Amino acid sequence: MIKNKTFRWTIQSAAAAGFVATTMLSGLAHAGPTLDKISQRGTIKVGVGTTPGFFAPDSNGKWQGFFIDFGRALSITVFGSPDKVEFTSSSPQQRLPALQSGEFDVLLSGVTVTATRAFKLGFHFGPTVFYDGQGILVRKDLGVTKAADLDGATIGAQSGTTGELNVADFFRKTGKTFKAVTIEDTGQFIAALESGRVDAITQDSSDLVGKRTQLKKPDDYVLLPERLSKEPLAPAIAGGDDRWLEIVNWTVNATIQAEEWGITSKNVDEFLKSEDPAIQRFLGVDKSFGEALGLDPKWAYNVIKTVGNYGEIFDRNLKPLGWDRGYNNLWTAGGLLYSPPFR
Amino acid sequence: MNTSSRPRSLRGRAGRLSSRLWQGLFGTRYNTIVTIVIAFLLGQIVLPLIRWAVLDATFTGTSDACARDGACWAFVGAKLRFILFAFYPPELQWRPLLVIVALAALLVASAVPRFWGWKLLAAWPASVAFCWLLLEGAFTATPIPSNQWGGLPVTLFVWAVCFAAATPIAVLLALGRRSRLGGLRTFSIAYIEAMRGTPMVGILYIAMLIVPMALPESLSVDKMLRAMIMITLFWSAYIAEVIRAGLQAIPRGQAEAATALGLSYWRVQQLIVLPQALRIVIPGMVNLAIGFLLATSLLAVIGIFDLLNAARASAADPVWLGFYNEAYLVVATVYFAICFGASRYSRWLEQRLAEGMRR
């Protein structure tokens, strides 16, 4: 009897605690523009991940990588200095809730733009900075040059990911057979490939490129050209601050536009003498443009001078790992990068 | 006669030892088979390991110099600083180093029964505050935000501080659970069971995501501090159960006798029950502490670069890509050294205290 009573008490107090917690949560949703918080704090809080080339600390403990450079660019646009930014690593499971709770001002952690995230979760996305997609890394001695040739191959995929489903869909479409081996820990992908347990592994190609360089003989393996899924990676911010969104948008656009004009960190000073009114507006030679935007007229100049244009960011961080520009090239060079006009 | 007897007996002992060894290894057919099988397995494991770690290894140079087949100790040379201190500014490295020294000294001092007393108790909050100020960059021009802290100092700091802070709470919870006051008892039971029924990752997510939403906008508590408070509350439930076991081991008659002498409840606990109970549970507490040290690596899920997470990140640098084995070995060595030390200490203390208890 006493035990029973205690049990009921336990349930009741647990329920009461749960009720209090939920009311507190619903009553205290965050409001107020992100940009106010940023200028008050004096730094931008950026959520990142850890993938070689995209974001990783160097030996001195300084963050380096493709997305890191865009974070520095944002810091320049807002504060005029590349160092007013705090990078914090976050796991894929917690990055979106952390953005929602205001822990980060912007996620530069390789978030894929999806309809659900925009509509249901209320996130806003900046321009796509990297067009990723699921790829297949195969042993060269299979003699396969395109994914449709794979027949009866053993393919390793990470369990519980969309990658596993995508590869099944792909083979259903082509009508060929394959044998799936699910691998829990992506760290074991390399071992599985090298031991011959699988003929190929499939994952986002951004990961596969990094994995390929870790193989004992990287040249014995090739990343097939097909992409089984679309993974456009873009900066993500919480809804409710339009101006912050525009700053993110146009900082990315500036790096793309600069590459289109051929402006690099090295020659940007020569372009200050340009007669082209569009370039004069862009670099702040004509001050009225930047002032009309409410930004430092020199913001784009400072971004390009310090971080470089899109091509320079790409070459510095991803080219050494064996990345080709592919889709991530200017629209004028057959890629998908296109900046709206700076007018 | 006397002088010559010692060497002979030594030789005799050595001879007995070697014959016993021979007996143990090859004495019976069964022993011989076991010996050969184990020697074979050891050869299979140890020889390639030596080959990897020593013969084929690269000790200096850049990542290009590292042969793919052997260990790359040059990686450890280049990355040890990052693994130990993560993002802490290199020019201020003496600060986390001093924190490690201070915490180690505090832990060692706490381990020696001779130092147990009020002074040591007072040294704890003082040292913790000192370490926090050091890490925070106090007395310098630029404060160092906690997202730049990392590596071994963070692991040790979170471990030692949370465990130390959780213990008094745990004592109260354990007493509460045995209390005659129904409300207090129910609260203690509910608290302990709720905490023990939640995974530590869940607790960390709450600290990271839900606590900031529940706090008023103006009050922003540092992420590290939030995590440490939640971990303290979480660990206190586990420690409380260990302490309760110690409380139950004290015969009820002692407390009753003390009460009959006119001592108040708190005096009874302070003078009679707790000194004995806490002594009994020390091995259990050390066991928990070892488990908790390893659990601090879960801090990685909320983006804190503890020792393990820093090691993992160090191998993602494109310049030194993929030397995970070497990085993990370094970390494993550090964890092992601490845990092994703790477990040896626990055995020593157990024996020492047992001597004291002997009548």
Automatic annotation (TrEMBL), chain A:
One of its GO terms (biological process) is amino acid transport. Pfam families: SBP_bac_3. Residues 43-271 form the Solute-binding protein family 3/N-terminal domain. The keyword rRNA-binding does not apply. InterPro entries: Bact_solute-bind_prot3 (IPR051455), Solute-binding_3/MltF_N (IPR001638). SMART domains: PBPb (SM00062). Keywords: Signal, Transport. The keyword Transport applies. Residues 1-31 form the signal peptide. PANTHER family: AMINO ACID ABC TRANSPORTER PERMEASE (PTHR30085), AMINO-ACID ABC TRANSPORTER-BINDING PROTEIN YHDW-RELATED (PTHR30085:SF7). Belongs to the bacterial solute-binding protein 3 family. This is General L-amino acid transport system substrate-binding protein. It comes from Allorhizobium borbori. The lineage of its organism: Bacteria, Pseudomonadati, Pseudomonadota, Alphaproteobacteria, Hyphomicrobiales.
From TrEMBL, chain B:
SUPFAM superfamilies: MetI-like. GO terms for molecular function: transmembrane transporter activity. Residues 152-342 form the ABC transmembrane type-1 domain. One of its GO terms (biological process) is amino acid transport. It comes from Allorhizobium borbori. This is General L-amino acid transport system permease protein. The keyword Electron transport does not apply. Its main location: membrane. The lineage of its organism: Bacteria, Pseudomonadati, Pseudomonadota, Alphaproteobacteria, Hyphomicrobiales. Belongs to the binding-protein-dependent transport system permease family. HisMQ subfamily. NCBIfam families: HEQRo_perm_3TM. CDD domains: TM_PBP2 (cd06261). Keywords: Cell membrane, Membrane, Transmembrane, Transmembrane helix, Transport.
